[in-house]
Amino acid sequence: KPLERIRRTVSSACLGNQGGRERKKSRGEHSAAASDVAADLGVSCTILDRIGKPVPETTTNSEAWQTGYTLELKYTLKEENAGLLEKKLRIETNLPACSEISLPKRVVAGDIVTSPYARLEFCSRGDCKWLWCVESEKGWELVAEGKPDLAVDEQHVGKRIKIKCEPACGGRLGEPREAVSVEPVMGAPRLEFMKARHERMARSKPDTSLRIMTYNILADVYSKTDYARDVLFPEIAPEHLDTGYRQQLSLFEIGGFASDVVCLQEMDTYLYDKFWSPRLESMGYSGFFGPKTSKAEGCALFWKSGRLSAIGKESIHIRDYFGDEQWLEQHLGVGVGRAIASDPNLAAILKKISTAAQFVLLEENDSKRKILVTNTHLYFHPGASHVRSLSVAVMLAYASDLLSRHKLLGDCVVLICGDLNSEPDTGAIELLAKGSVSREHYEWLDCLRFSWKGRDEEAGFEQDEELKYELDAGSALGGEAVTGFYLKNPFGPLTSADGLRSSFTNYVKGYIGALDYIFFNPQGMKLEDFAPLPLERDLCREEDVDSEGRVLKQGYLPSQAFPSDHVSLVADFSFLDASGATATGGVPLAWPPPEDREVMPLPASRWNEGKAADALRQGKIIAVPTDTIYGVAAAASSDEGIDRIYDAKQRPAFLPLALCIAHASEIGRYGEASHLPGGLVEEFLPGPYTLLLNRKEDSELSKNLNPGTKTVGIRVPESSFVRGVVSQLGFAIALTSANISGGQSSTAVGHFREIWSKCANVYDGGSLNAGTSGSTIIDLTQEGVYKIVRKGCSEAEARSILERYGINEQQ
Q: Does the pLDDT at position 120 exceed 80?
């Protein structure tokens, strides 16, 4: 628009002071009146260029308003005898400005560097002048100036901090703006473990290696829920769960590793621009954000721009590809898309998941070597392991397609990072590490067991209390064969940087597990170093660990010293040419997970029944909660499993093992029960009883189960988990108490820790309150009489039942 519009605007402003008479006129009348009144008042408005020459009124505003020009105003006041007044105003465009500034609610003293959020315009953080002040009796005392970051001295604990920004650029100054911390400065947390990891990795990194970090930082949108505070994180103080506090510790941890690539999950959408992006940019990173479909949070991927440049970056929503049958057929195999579309339950689930995946194709600035990095956070629900396997398949196929589009397939190293919400022995990890998942994998059974009942997706929460699930009444709990999907990794077997040895990366009340990974293709990279992960004692307060390192009271994540419910993974890699490539990239074992990996308890939930049954099927043993005490179990048909029980318990070979079945109706498969009165077995089972019967000759029980003994004890515990495991196995399990032979029976998983390492998995059902006596063992081998072999739970009730059926105690 031409400059003459300025005169009209000024005229209108003058007219506005003349009362409401002219405001009632039409727009055309208003403009005419404005010009007339302005003329009467002698108002003129002119822009002068740098040599004082008037700028023609036909000049556009964008050309006329320039720094160094002058706005000349001439006007006459309406007061009587007022003369002509003149004012000249220097024009400044794009003046440096700080439109918003704030400090964390809780500033932390010590090594944690405090950095304000500042929305700057036409200047950078380095251009501005920064003043730091601390509250004192005399007012605000200057303690530092120059930099926008400050490690607050511990002498200022208990006082508030003020930051002042004086925006500047090229000698031009803007209006200052300041902010004061809401809460007084907090004392420095104990960060010995975090610092030790930093120092350990600082000593080992060669200049040529590539350092990768992945970290679930715990989104504010989840940490502030009642479920988080009351169930997941009940032991952390509110000030340490505060997002502002946790952000500062997370930033300190990330900065201390100086990684070349940083993959973050559970990044709050509103905090990406307000906190993370500017902070990491000031540390030399470039990056981008990939929100989930819920928009509340997502993934963020950063790289050191001094070393790496992005050739291309993309973010996708996995569910978009599950709805494309043609894409699935082309990339996952013939029949996959059709099979998903034909299963309404599975198709509905796959269309609702909010999972996002990020892909960035990086190039080293010096060597021009190409690196593809993928970052994701898979759907969390424990019953949706099959969904995670399919999600990984889509992500790998997309990565392969991306490299094909860039003509780099086979000529580019690949890194798959993130919170995969999958333990090392699950299908998603098998697909990555082994290179394929078979149609017979036990997790496909979940396709029939898990369904989506309802969800408030707009809320963006993924806690159980925000979602409702159902276990279908017709679910395949009886060992029914299920045909799944054959999935193949287009990159072949990938190697996990931790060798799948990590005992946990997530440690909260009710769940402990290894969920976070850095996978790489060993044909192009070699693992040089891996940052040590914490032990359980490292999570504890100093006073909760004795002088010999024994844990007196277990700590959990997050805590004062650990800002997330996950721990970060950091690994250093070197690059290999074809002649230096190895099968596993310097990691001793790629697949399966090593058997000597430290075992951590898993929840004894229905969603883990398939995993437990699969371990038994392989001849391994597990620890389970029953209705009385904790027990150790093996498949009753497995010679290897039976031997492992005796080895784990150091149990004499002559001591027999009992059987556990899923339903009382199955008792005749393993023991002679035809002589028992009708209904008697159902009176006892399920319940805290073991019925001793003569062993069936054709029962297919292991030859190692109680050799030389003609009898067998059979139980049906009032434990839905144990019965579910037996149902999925399709055969009885051998079960005995979880303790070293001769020791005290266990009513909590912590009571038998000495045998955890012998188990494939330990399942935690909480503290049991039936005492330590175990089940009551009743000898029913002879018709019409009984004998109490071992007094245990509900003995008196057992005698009453037997008397009611006319069975007398053997004398």
A: yes
d(Cα 807, Cα 785) in Å, to the nearest integer? 5
**Sign of dihedral through CA atoms 687, 690, 696, 697?**
positive
Which own/partner pairs from 644-648 qualify as long-range (CB within 8 Å, at least 24 positions apart)?
644/619, 644/620, 644/758, 645/621, 645/734, 645/736, 647/758, 648/621, 648/755, 648/758, 648/759
- Give how far Cα 166 sits from Cα of 79, 147, 161, 370, Å: 41, 12, 17, 42
Structure tokens at 67: 């720094």
- Counting beta carbons within 10 angstroms of the beta carbon of residue 596, is it exposed (0 to 12), middle (13 to 18) or buried (19 or more)? exposed
Could you report the per-residue pLDDT of 378-423, keeping only the tens digit for each? 999 988 999 999 999 999 999 999 999 999 998 999 999 999 999 9
Helix axes 720-729, 609-617, angle to 10 degrees: 50
The per-residue DSSP string of 30-83 comes to HHHHHHHHHHHHT-EEEEE-TTSPBPPTTSBHHHH--TT-EEEEEEE-SSTT--
For residue 657, which amino acid is it? L
Distance CA 413, CA 364 (A): 12
Q: How do residues 480-507 score in pLDDT, each as one tens digit?
A: 444 689 999 999 999 999 999 999 999 9
- For residue 354, give both structure tokens: 């909010």
Alpha helices for 547-676 (secondary structure H): 609-617, 639-649
